Request: fold
Amino acid sequence: MRDYTSFIGTNGREVCRMSGTPKNMAAFEKRAENAEVVEIGRYFSSSSIWPEDVIYLRKVDGRWQSGLNKGYRGYFFYYLKPLKINFSLVREEISEEEGHKAIKDAAPELTESAAKVIVWCDKTDETDEDGRYWLSAYQGAGVYRLIVAGGKIRGAIRGGFHDCRKSPRVSAFGDLVFKEALKLAVEKELGTSDFHLLKADGSGTYFFLRNQEDSIYLETKEYDVPMADGTGWHHNIEIKSSLI
Reply:
């Protein structure tokens, strides 16, 4: 069995690990004494290299539970339910109203962590000879969420919402709470709620929007380039520099 349970301390590092999902309550509680987060990895196929399902749990009102996920109707989360001598990983569903409230209530706890994944533009970049006023926010080629307000890029989140160096603690709150916390962090920095978080790709110190409809928020120039495999053309939506 390759399933595992990892116990992660307040420093974000693994304290210890046990094979399998949580079973024996006494063994689990002993290992969880110094853990802030419990990570459960599950494999559903013998050929899988990486776990197909990873669940992060944190202690909430005395029990270990995951962050919220959006379901077909309302929201759901997982928690470890103690039985006689072992645990059962249980899925619990809650209503839309309960989910919205839980997300709003939890987001302020993550605002500081969310702020750490944002890189803001710097005024010194406004003197760039090519007009790339966003240089400080550019962190290499890759996927981004751009923070856009007033027709300009104000900051960026490299890796988007999912691959932006989140800590295990943040993962235990869940993506929905993290996104809400990001909005709070951006609003605090900019002093306004009038901003947009746009999907983009970074390449060669420039940014390219993913979605055509987002071009209404920025000055862009559009053109087609040959695809790397030679099978056709790719449409670029490049964000204009201040000199264009």
Q: What stands out?
A: The chain has five helices and 15 strands. The chain has a mean pLDDT of 91.
